[in-house]
Amino acid sequence: MTSARVGFVSLGCPKALVDSERIITQLRAEGYEIAADYEGADLVVVNTCGFIDDAVQESLDADAVQESLDAIGEALQENGKVIVTGCLGAKASGSGNNLVKELHPSVLAVTGPHATAEVMQAVHQYLPKPHDPFTDLVPEQGIRLTPRHYAYLKISKDF
């Protein structure tokens, strides 16, 4: 069985780069592989640029937004399964709706910047976490050594 593979496109400033590094680190920690191209990916995450501060010069904003929208469109055309995150994901259109969803309604999910947990939640929804035989056998609550009807409460700590 092959591992789940995620393509990744990172656009924008150093802050977006840090978000990309965090998301990629989490993907790798959970057993996902990072695909080198769209064809080899099961889905693609696009970390966008598109300044959310209204004080930013409009011409710079328009260029960043267009570059991000083009990257999303290319990923959709080449792969079809796209999750969008980053500054552009938080941008509203003139009608007040999410700009990305309005222009690219087929994207799977859209999050804003600093949203590693939300991106991972969307990845898990559309591309289940790869099986890890070492950790997947451990129940969420941990291993219990007592019967179900027992519950110990730790109220002190020995030093």
Oligomer: single chain
Calculate Rg over CA atoms.
20 Å
Helix content: 25-40%
Ends distance: 48 Å
The class by helix and strand makeup works out as alpha/beta
In what range is the share of β-strand residues? 5-15%
What's the arrangement of strands in the largest beta sheet? 2-1-3-4-5
Count of individual helical segments: 4
Largest sheet: 5 strands, parallel
The counted number of beta strands is 5
Mean pLDDT: 85
* Uncertain residue segments: 54-60
- What is the overall shape? elongated
Order of helices and strands: EHEEHEHEH
Structure, described:
- The chain is an alpha/beta fold and 159 residues long.
- The chain contains four helices and five strands.
- The chain has helices at residues 14-29, 58-78, 99-103, 116-126, and strands at residues 5-10, 33-35, 43-48, 82-86, 109-110.
- Strand 1 (5-10), helix 1 (14-29) and strand 2 (33-35) form a beta-alpha-beta unit.
- Residues 54-60 have low confidence and may be disordered.
Index terms:
alpha/beta; 4 helices; 5 strands; 159 residues
Draw up the topology in text.
Elements (H helix, E strand, L loop, with lengths): L4 E6 L3 H16 L3 E3 L7 E6 L9 H21 L3 E5 L12 H5 L5 E2 L5 H11 L33
